Amino acid sequence: MAATETSQEYIGHHLHHLTVGSGFWSVHVDSMFFSIVLGVLFCWAFYRVATRATTGVPSKFQCAVEMLVEFTQNSIQDIFSGSSKLIAPLSLTIFVWIFLMNLMDLIPVDFLPQASQLLGIPYLRVVPSADVNITMSMSLSVFVLILYYSFKIKGPVGFFKELTLHPFNHWAFSPINFLLEGVTLVAKPVSLGLRLFGNMYAGELIFLLIACLPWWGQWVLSLPWAIFHVLIITLQAFIFMILTIVYLSQASTEEEE
Known about the structure:
Layout: H1 7-14, E1 19-20, E2 27-28, H2 29-51, H3 60-79, H4 87-103, H5 111-118, H6 132-164, H7 174-211, H8 215-251
Antiparallel strand pairs: 1-2
């Protein structure tokens, strides 16, 4: 933090996005850039492992990828009761992609923003998952898949019955059932996106607060918080993946009459 800069100005500057446009049509260029770069990095790394996989002595990175794939498959087998070729790659992508986005929070808070200022870029936020637009976009994509599987497996009539005949299985309670089930349905993507955003935004804010302390306070607090934050980073990616599998499993399962 600069000597002439107050803590409020410092935190406000670091929480400001590099934005193009204004209002509803504004785009956070920094969040888009880092999320796309991390997604491409994930695809390239896994593709490279897949094309160079060997049955002999595998490399350490190949072992790590195989463990991730096996972990994802076991999670799906325990939760998802239907059959779909999309669930496995989707779950793996969600877990690794969100983990990489969360991992950006461990980079020192001033490292990339100050480097970008030398290039003439005034603002730069490097944690895409601390941007509610990114997390809600991902959760809305999951919501679209929930609707798709609900219509595909249950059909329009079956899906409508699920919304109007549960939890009270009587036509007289249809309006109440529709209200309750509608709120539950909409709450899935909202809670999914806001949970990830809230945890990562809070983690980023704590790092910024630590950076406002004297140098000795930063050394005392930053390392323990970074070690603890590794657990949060991994856990939030895991929760997002597991809830996605659960929601899609519920959408793919026909309720018994």
